[in-house]
Design goal:
This protein folds into two domains: 14-75 and 177-188, Pseudouridine synthase I, catalytic domain, N-terminal subdomain (Alpha-Beta Plaits); 78-175, Alpha-L RNA-binding motif (Alpha-Beta Plaits, 2-Layer Sandwich). It starts with 15 loop residues before the first strand and ends with a strand. It is built from three helices and eleven strands, in the order βββαβαββββαβββ. Helices cover 13% and strands 29% of the residues. With 189 residues, the protein is α+β, with helices and mostly antiparallel strands. Strands 1, 2, 3, 4, 7, 8, 9, 10 and 11 form a nine-stranded mixed beta sheet that branches. Strands 5-6 form a two-stranded antiparallel sheet.
């Protein structure tokens, strides 16, 4: 008796796309206001963002056609870690980094412990438009790793410790990073 083998017609290939989202681009494929969306950069159909990045944030966005993977990456209960490179206003010190690591009290509750370290300014693409600097106020770069994803959480956390975010780049989601992906480009893995 012959074994039944499923037809290739019914099996869709899993797609995973890593996209380096530029500043001012929406994390969706359509927009009634005709603002830049993923459609302006990605010509692959039937994939959806696994999580979001705000329009004014940049960096790694994972897109997939696999609903289980999408849910695992986006759902806070799975605690997929994400690392952000954050340019903040002022010279952040160890005390403020420790506050970020312990968790800070936001309007929607205490944040989970995070990993926060001071880093050298990373080699990055220019942002368009450029970040607004104040002539007599220095800036610092930190690496912030979170396992939750509240709305505008990184920005709210840095503001809470007195260092507003100027530029926010998601560098890593799980085991995937931005390495080798230019702004506005993507790779399919």
């Amino acid at each position: 008796m012959a074994k039944h083998r499923p037809s290739n017609k019914n099996i869709s290939k899993q797609k995973v796309v890593l996209f380096n989202k530029p500043f001012n681009v929406l994390c969706q494929f359509t927009d009634a206001e005709q603002r830049p969306t993923l459609k302006n950069f990605i010509d692959i159909t039937d994939i959806y963002a696994a999580g979001r990045l705000d329009r004014d944030s940049e960096g790694l966005l994972v897109l997939t056609n696999n609903g289980k993977l999408q849910h695992k990456l986006a759902d806070p209960k799975h605690k997929t870690s994400k690392t952000y490179w954050v340019q903040v206003e002022g010279q952040i010190n160890q005390e403020k980094l420790q506050q970020l690591e312990k968790g800070v009290e936001l309007k929607d509750g205490m944040t989970l412990p995070a990993k926060a370290t001071l880093i050298d300014e990373p080699e990055l693409w220019p942002r368009n438009p450029p970040v607004r600097f104040r002539q007599h106020i220095p800036t610092s770069w930190i690496s912030l790793t979170l396992t939750e994803g509240r709305n505008r959480q990184v920005r709210r956390m840095t503001a809470h410790v007195g260092h507003p975010t100027l530029r926010l780049i998601r560098y890593r989601v799980g085991n995937w990073t931005l390495d080798g992906i230019a702004s506005g480009e993507y790779i399919e893995i």
